[in-house]
Write a structure and sequence with these properties.
Layout (H helix, E strand, L loop, with lengths): L8 E4 L2 E4 L10 H5 L2 E9 L2 E2 L2 H14 L8 H14 L5 E8 L16 E8 L12 E7 L14 H12 L4 E6 L2 E5 L3 E5 L4 E4 L10 H12 L3 E4 L4 H6 L2 E6 L3 E8 L2 E2 L7 H15 L8
Parallel strand pairs: 7-8, 7-14, 11-12
Antiparallel strand pairs: 1-2, 1-6, 3-4, 3-5, 5-6, 8-9, 10-11, 10-13, 13-14, 14-15
The structure holds pyridoxal-5'-phosphate.
Length: 293
């Protein structure tokens, strides 16, 4: 079992507090209804990775469910940097959650209640993920989620169930399937490399979260002259793929070598995902550290 890594300084509604002292009322709508939005930015060698796009997606998700964004981009970034300093965070994640706020438990509430903001850091190996050298095994599961998956809602029950199933199967991720086609990973964007060396990923729509790492990796792919095709792919197509991989802030780009017990791409991490990952990391490391800005 992962234990909570206190001591830790967290952020709650304007205050930086020891984790043990941080409190949210039980009437918070995030707790009662999953009525909130979250965002996760990776930290690597003291740098916030792709942070502005993450904060812009936070803004879009909040607007999507009618919660006022309490802070500007600069204010969010200042709090994130303070949390990095307070927790001496070099590598890991910064989690942001904004809920609609605290009100008597009723489905509706007035539009002007103040949103709840919670932020914390997590120490995690982002670059040296243990699955990287051998590649990840994954399973496919039915996509049980709601119809607005482009909104990064804290209501993650379907993903929790998918991840539990993956864990029980001893694999790293679950790809979710609807009408025979992969939508995305439980917490990642799904990619294939075809026999024609095309990189395939599903186009953006309300069916998937617009992954920030997806966007960054697509930019890298285009910059190095790889062919990218945005189209849905079926579960059957995975078997014929040269490579499979997934992207997310916390895993960057992870090779997939086995799906539902069947080998993909010869059972070895492929050259395309390795190149994409290396180029992406090289570009990230050219950015200044947050404490040097
Ligand atoms: N898709 C889903 C459903 C996710 O939950 C996530 C990340 O948590 C992603 C895709 C990847 O998004 P990002 O690259 O912005 O981390």
């Amino acid at each position: 079992m992962t234990r909570l890594h206190a001591p830790r300084i967290v952020y709650v509604n304007g205050a930086f507090l020891p984790f043990e002292e941080a409190r949210i009322p039980i009437m918070d709508r995030g707790f009662l209804f999953g009525d909130g939005i979250y965002e996760v930015t990776a930290v690597l060698e003291g740098r916030l990775i792709d942070n502005d796009p993450h904060l812009l997606r936070l803004d879009r998700s909040l607007a999507g469910i009618g919660i006022r964004n309490p802070y500007s981009l600069a204010e969010w970034t200042a709090i994130q940097r303070q949390l990095m300093r307070d927790n001496a965070l070099e590598e890991g994640l910064i989690y942001i959650e904004v809920t609609r706020g605290v009100y008597e438990r009723e489905f509706t509430c007035p539009p002007d209640i103040p949103p709840t903001v919670v932020m914390f850091t997590q120490v995690k190996p982002v670059r040296d993920n243990p699955n990287l050298t051998r590649g990840a095994a994954i399973i496919t599961v039915p996509d049980l989620r709601w119809a607005r998956r482009d909104i990064k809602s804290t209501a993650l029950l379907a993903q929790v169930l998918a991840k539990q199933e993956a864990k029980a199967a001893g694999v790293a991720e679950a790809w979710m399937v609807e009408d025979g086609f992969v939508t995305e990973g439980a917490s990642s964007t799904a990619f294939l490399v075809t026999e024609n060396d095309e990189i395939i990923t599903r186009p953006l729509s309300q069916a998937v979260l617009p992954g920030i790492t997806r966007m960054a990796i697509i930019d890298v792919a285009k910059a190095i002259g790889l062919r990218l095709v945005e189209r849905p792919f079926s579960v059957e197509e995975i078997a014929t793929a040269r490579e499979a991989f997934f992207t997310s802030a916390s895993t960057i780009a992870m090779p997939v070598v086995q799906v539902d017990g069947r080998q993909v791409g010869g059972g070895q991490p492929g050259p395309v995902v390795r190149a994409l990952r290396e180029r992406y990391l090289a570009a990230v490391m050219e950015q200044p550290r947050e404490d040097a800005r």
